[in-house]
DEAD/DEAH box helicase
Amino acid sequence: MNPFLELGIRHDIVNAITELGFEKPSPIQEKAIPVLLTGNDDFVGLAQTGTGKTAAFGLPLLEQLDFSFNQPQALVLCPTRELCLQIAKDLEKFAKFMDNVHVVAVYGGANIGDQLRQIRRGVQIVVATPGRMLDIIGRNAIDFSNVKYVVLDEADEMLNMGFQEDINNILSETPEDKKTWLFSATMPKEVRRIAQNYMTDPFELTVGTKNTGNANIEHNYYLIKAKDKYAAFKRIVDFYPEIFGIVFCRTKIETQEIAEALIKDGYNADSLHGDLSQQQRDKVMKRYRERNLQLLIATDVAARGIDVNDVTHVINYSLPDEVENYTHRSGRTARAGKTGISISLVNVKEMSKIRHIEKIIGKSFERKQVPQGTEVCEKQLFAMVDKVHNVEVQEEQINAFLPQILESLQDLTKEEVVKRFASLEFNRFLDYYKEAPDLNIEARDARGDRDRDREPGRRSSKGFTRLFINLGSVDEFNRGDMLGFICNKSKISGKSIGKIDLKGVFTFFEVEDAEVEKVFQGFKSVEFNGRAVRIEVSGDGRSSDRGSNGRGRGRSSDRERGDRNGSSRNGRRDRDRSNGGFRDFSGKRKESRSRY
Ligand code: AMP
C-alpha cells in the first residue's frame, strides 16, 4: 500500500503527489501528517527548508477543509512573494484531482485588484505575505470568520523581516478556536514567544537537531588572504564545472560588484538584491530557476525564501553577521534529501567566526585547500570529456555533414582526433592557469606580500571620494542627467564632481572630499520613481540611509577584489575570451563568445 494512504491521505491526493514523484513521506511528513490530520492540535514544527514542509501541512489542509463551501478556511502566512507563489502552486498541484479547490496567493508588488477579484470569486485557502494580507484586511475585503487553520511558515524569517506586528494583527482577525501550525528552521526566543502567546499546548516536532543545519550539508572553508578572495573564489568555481550555486555577499554593492566582475570574466552569473525592482528580481529568478544562470549572487534579504532545488553549492563570499543567517544560507542547498556543500571564504581574522558558527550549528567545518591551477585544468578537462560522452547527437542534421567532416579528418588517427577536440577547450584553461600562484594562506605567507601594493583596484582620484548611488542607466540616466541630478539634490557645483561611472542599476561617482557631506545631506530621504535613493561611500558600507555620522571615508577599499579582471597581476587577462564554452551551463553557449 502507498505509504501516504497509510498515513490517512485519500486516493485523489495520493495520485497527484505520486505524479509529482513523492514515493514515500519525508521524515517531517511522516511525523506531522498523522498529528495534523486529527485537526485537534496546535503544532510547532522545527524543520529546515527543503524538507517537505509544504506537503506536511498542505496535505492535511486539503484533507480537512470543506471545499463545497467557498469561504476562506485556511490562511498560510509566509515571508516572501517567492515562497507564497511556490506554496500556492504546490497546493494546487496536490489538489489536481480534487474538485472546487480554490487557492489564492496574496503578496505585495503585484496588482491588488486581481487578488481582490480572486478572493471575491471565492477561495478556501489564502496563502499570503503579511504586508499585503493586512492591506486586504484593512479594505474589509476578506472574511476570516470561518478560518479553521492558520499556518505560519518560515516563522523565524517572518520575524527577521520585521513582520511581528503584522502577524499579531492578522491573527487577531481570525477566530479564537482556530488551530495554529507553526514551521520554523530555527527557534529563537521571538518564535518561541509566538508559540506561547498564540497556541495552546502545541504538539512539538523537531526534524534534525535544534538549530543545526541539514545533515546532508557539508561545511567547508578556505583560508585565504583577503586580497586573494576573488581569485580563490573563481578557482573554486572552476573546480566544480557543474556548479549551480548561490553566492552570498554582505552588501548590495558587493553583490553587484561580484556579479559584474563574474559576468565580465565570462561566467553565467547575475545578482539579486533589494535595489532591483520586483520585475527585475523575477527575471533574475526565472533565469536561475531555468538554469540559464549558473551563479546567483545575492544578499541575505533578497535570497530569503529562494526554494530552488538542486542547488549544489552555497558560497559565503562574505560570512554573515548573524549565525542564524548562516543556517538560512546553507539551507538553500541539500533540499529534498539531496546533498550540498556550503563553502566559506575566510581570512585568518575570520576564523573565530567559523568556530562560533560550528558551536551554534553543532557541526564541524572542514578546511579545504584552494585548488591549484593544474587541478582545475584536470577537473575541467574531464568535465568536458563527460560532456562529449553525454552530448545529444542530432543525427539527422549532423549526418548531412558527416562525410565532409570525416574527409577533413581522415589523415588523423582516432587518438589524434580525440586529442585535438579535447585541446580546443583544454588549451584555454592551461593558458589561463599557466603559472597560477598557490592561493592557500601558508603559501602566500611564505611568498611574502610584496605585490600587495600593486593590486589593481579602483581608487578615487586624489582629493575625491568615490560614492555609490543606486540609480543607473536602467533608470534612464545618462552621465549628464546623473551629474545634474546629483548637483541639484546636493546643492553643489558640477565642478566638484569627478568621474561618473554609470552602470546598469547603479553608478559610481567621485565628489570632492570637502563636498561629500553635502551629498549625504542632500540625499537624505530622496526618492526616485517610488524607490528610496541610497548613497554609500564605495567599499566601506557607509550609507545615506544611516545618516551622516558614519565611519571614515575618502578611501575606496576595493583591494579585496584586486584580482577581478582575470588575475592581471600575473599577466593573464579576461579569461572569458580564452574560456569559451566552459562557463556555459547546460550546454548553452553564448554566441558572442563562441568562435566555433
Ligand atoms: P518543501 O520543503 O515543501 O519546499 O519541499 C522541498 C522539495 O521536496 C519540493 O520540491 C517538493 O516537491 C519535494 N518533496 C516534498 N515531499 C516529498 C516527498 N515525500 N518525496 C519526494 N519529494 C518531495
